[in-house]
Design goal:
The chain is of the alpha+beta class. Helix content is 30%, strand content 30%. The chain has a seven-stranded mixed sheet with strand order 1-2-3-4-5-7-6. A hairpin with a 2-residue loop joins strand 6 and strand 7. The longest helix has 16 residues. About 2% of the residues have low confidence.
Length: 201
């Protein structure tokens, strides 16, 4: 349990305000990442929107954490190519939606959904898959969930391939539910059940 909030290369920590306000701005202004994870109309964020987003990840989630690259041993090379530091580098955030779980009448269903955002410059380095595996472990083993969902947009083929590779099962599509870059696109839904997760261990 000592390493509960660590994985191979990453550490996961709570939001610290106001220390993390600058990181919240970075996430909100990273349009490439935002359009792949959020169906909201792309526009310059204001303080209210950023605060609402922060609250959704931290206060209104079953679990909401900042994803950080763990400090490496002294003298090693950082992911950016320079000398590593002892300070974790925030690169994204991941959450399990409280959803039904926050309502006593629905808590018995033990179902949640993953939300994930990683800054564009840290994508395609395996951090997303590592963070998803970590939160699946926390959700099933620690929180006692039975089902965990995740979704992507049909223009984000990399996310679809990743979720299937991690063992998520496609459940269906909301056809032409989103307008993006001049055309209509689907929302693709996936899930994993606790027995399916155990079989992957």
């Amino acid at each position: 349990m000592n390493d509960l909030f660590r994985s191979q290369r990453l550490v996961y920590r709570a939001y610290e305000s106001p220390e993390d306000d600058n990181f919240s701005w970075q996430i909100a202004q990273d349009i490439e990442s935002a359009v792949n994870s959020n169906p909201r109309l792309p526009k310059p964020p204001d303080k209210k929107e950023i605060e609402e987003s922060r609250k959704a990840y931290s206060g209104k989630s079953l679990l909401g954490v900042i994803i950080c690259i763990a400090p490496a041993s002294a003298g090693s090379v950082s992911p950016e190519g320079g000398t590593s530091t002892e300070i974790p580098i925030p690169i994204g955030r991941i959450a399990l939606d409280a959803g039904f779980i926050s309502q006593v009448a629905f808590a018995r269903h033990r179902s949640s959904k993953i939300g994930l955002e990683i800054l564009a410059k840290y994508q395609n380095k395996g951090y997303g898959s590592e963070a998803i595996r970590w939160i699946l472990d926390w959700g099933f083993r620690i929180a006692g969930l039975h089902r965990i969902g995740i979704g992507c947009f049909s223009w984000n083929d990399g996310a679809r391939r990743l979720y299937e590779r991690l063992g998520f099962v496609p459940e269906g599509r909301q056809r032409e539910a989103l307008w993006h870059d001049g055309g209509w696109h689907d929302i693709i839904e996936f899930s994993m059940l606790e027995d399916e997760w155990k079989a992957l261990k």
